[in-house]
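Digeranylgeranylglycerophospholipid reductase, pasting as requested.
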Amino acid sequence: MNDRYDVVIAGAGPAGAQCARDLAARGYDVVVLETEAEEEFPRQSNKSTAGTFHSMMAAFGIPDDVVMQYTDSVVLESPTEHYVRDQTGAVLEFADFKRYLVKDSRDRGAEYRFDARVTAPITENGEIVGVTYNGDEEVYGDITIDATGPSAPLAKKLDIVDLERENHAIGVEYEFEGIDIDRPGFADLRDAMMLRLDHEIAPGGYSWIFHTGADTAKVGLCYIQNDSHDQYSRDDFTIDDYLSHWLETDPRFRDAEPIEGKQHRGSAHIQAPDKLHTDRFMAIGDTVPSLDPLWGEGINKCMQSGRAAAATADSVLKHDGIEPTAENLEVYDTLWHRDVAPNAKSRLLMTQLLYLAPNDRYDRLMRDLQRLDDDTLAEANKGNVRAIANLIELEDAPLLARFAKQQLDLDLGSLLP
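Structure tokens follow.
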């Protein structure tokens, strides 16, 4: 095996594999180091709900054969109300999707080393020049990319990320059959991705039902372990207890049975990154993190960050004599904030405010969405302050006051109607 490459990537998830796809297509020597063994991949890292939208499928050339179900709508639920928005999407078989990305990037010329746990950066004169893996094995590259997710063995040691516990989100998901997808009294979830705001089920977070065909669906919940979770959670409940509670109390699950081998657990951090790169190094995907703070969509964000890093590496490596210094990799920051997470700060604040609201406010939010045009939700989802203001009412003053205590630098005047 070679020990020197143009680019070394740690992690074969959507971000790392997409970055490798793009770099290999441009003719660069790239190697991907993946912790899992190839014959099991991605058993341990098969942790995504895998809900995404056609824009991602088209932008990255993802084939239909990794799709479990194409969907026609997104449904938002509260304890007693719901809102339906027409929006096409796709629920992927995440394991097949990840294996496709690896195969396709290999076909383009990328090298993969499985069962290769990256442990530390190799530095010379204060700059990373390679990585160690599996204890004492080494590989070198002009540019190194950390795509390992929250473990971030390289980004943490290079002081690029500081993932905080209060921003740590955990999730659990099962796939079920026997679900009453079109239950009277509830929204029709046929060909739909549903997200539910309900502190009885997911305190400080949300739950979901993603239809995967016939009477089957992905069902799960996640929450952030922050002040909102502490306010609404039960001391004696684990995340599994909350899922069991939902299954026991929601009539849609009365005849539901878990599908063997289809249980997933995962975690991510919901916070804005302080840094994204340094000399000869970039962090991508959930290492940064790149997860959408509001609804948890991560696939498109990870893929976009991988593409942005590949474009940045190309902008430097294609020129002889130009070193991949932090200054010359600055374009990655520009692309990340423009394409991966525009309005990241306002969306993060909106997320914190949303999960602080009580259940009766979620019911009113659904009624507000029903009377407003779709553009208002779309703009609010992007973090547009004026659109957010249209969703805030005078009765929200106590909620805003509590929120202000958590965010002392928040400009309440910009949010009030």
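Note for the archive: The domain at 72-88+166-268 is CATH 3.30.9.10 (D-Amino Acid Oxidase; Chain A, domain 2).
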